[in-house]
């Protein structure tokens, strides 16, 4: 069964600090992995998308890594800002009809001043 | 930028009512999707559509139907709303053979 597990479920960090979110998956055959940011009451917004051959991708202060051998990904937030407070969702796509997505449960990040 | 618009941010409906959730995208995307999002369960696919008048069941289609009469519009229908359908509903679209999905802002439906 395709699964995506994220950790931690939630974390609190101080403004200006860095943090790293983890994503482990068992989706097969792997197509791509995305990280989304979802503000409360809003739809997810894409941060990064990585295919099998990519092992790192950045979007401003967000840097995602992918280890396709161990089936792990991480999202690193540098110099956090209050606006980074959101849920971060790891989504893995399998090669199948419709490029089916498997969603992780998300990590809720709260940045405090 | 691609825009996916969901007609309502918040809806309150009574048990047994027929409910229509509308989603419109402005970039001529072939593929459109309906998800529901619940705490602890993440996003789950209800239905998706590859093209006009085409639809495929997702992981949790029971209690739902969909309509795709025009390419830009994908409607989710709750034939007889029940309290366990209280949830956040998210619509998404993407072109074929492209990885990126664009999500709407969501509709928070409460069935009382």
Q: How would you sum up this structure, described in words?
A:
Helices cover 0% and strands 58% of the residues of chain A. Chain A contains no helices and eleven strands. Chain A has strands at 4-7, 10-14, 19-25, 30-38, 45-51, 56-59, 62-67, 72-77, 86-94, 101-103, 107-112. In chain A, strand 4 (30-38) and strand 5 (45-51) form a beta hairpin. Chain A is globular and about 45 Å long. In chain B, the strands form two sheets. In chain B, strands 2, 4, 5, 6, 9, 10 and 11 form a seven-stranded mixed beta sheet that branches. In chain B, 37% of the residues are buried. The mean pLDDT of chain B is 91. Chain A binds chain B through residues 31-32, 34, 36, 41-46, 49, 51, 89, 93, 97-101, 103-106, and chain B through 4, 6, 9, 31, 40-45, 48, 50, 56, 90, 92, 99-106, 108.
**Portion of residues within helices of chain A:** under 10%
Number of helices of chain B: 0
Distance separating the two termini of chain B: 37 Å
Radius of gyration of chain A: 14 Å
Shape of chain A: globular
What percent strand of chain A? over 45%
Q: What structural class should be given to the helix and strand makeup of chain A?
A: mainly beta
Structural class label of chain B: mainly beta
* SSE order of chain A, one letter for each helix or strand: EEEEEEEEEEE
Helix content of chain B: under 10%
What is the number of beta strands of chain B? 11
* Number of DSSP E strands of chain A: 11
Low-confidence stretches of chain B: none
Number of alpha- plus pi-helical segments of chain A: 0
Please tell me what the overall shape of chain B is: globular
Strand content of chain B: over 45%
């Amino acid at each position: 069964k395709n699964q995506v597990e994220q950790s931690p479920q939630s974390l609190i960090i101080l403004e200006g600090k860095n943090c790293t979110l983890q994503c482990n998956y068992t989706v097969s055959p792997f197509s791509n992995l995305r990280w989304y940011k979802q503000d409360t009451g809003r739809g997810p917004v894409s941060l990064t998308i990585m295919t099998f051959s990519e092992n790192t991708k950045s979007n401003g202060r967000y840097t995602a890594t992918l280890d396709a051998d161990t089936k792990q990904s991480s999202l690193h937030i540098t110099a956090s800002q209050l606006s980074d407070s959101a849920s971060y969702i790891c989504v893995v796509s399998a090669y199948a009809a419709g490029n089916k997505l498997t969603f992780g449960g998300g990590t809720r990040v709260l940045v405090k001043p | 930028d691609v825009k996916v618009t969901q007609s309502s941010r918040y809806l309150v409906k009574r048990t047994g009512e027929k409910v229509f959730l509308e989603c419109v995208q402005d970039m001529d995307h072939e593929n459109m999707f309906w998800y529901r999002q619940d705490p602890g369960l993440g996003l789950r696919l209800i239905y998706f559509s590859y093209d006009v008048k085409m639809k495929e069941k997702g992981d949790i289609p029971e209690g739902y139907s969909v309509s795709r009469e025009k390419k830009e519009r994908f409607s989710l229908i709750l034939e007889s709303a029940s309290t366990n359908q209280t949830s956040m509903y998210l619509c998404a679209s993407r072109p074929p053979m492209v990885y990126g999905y664009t999500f709407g802002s969501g509709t928070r439906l409460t069935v009382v």
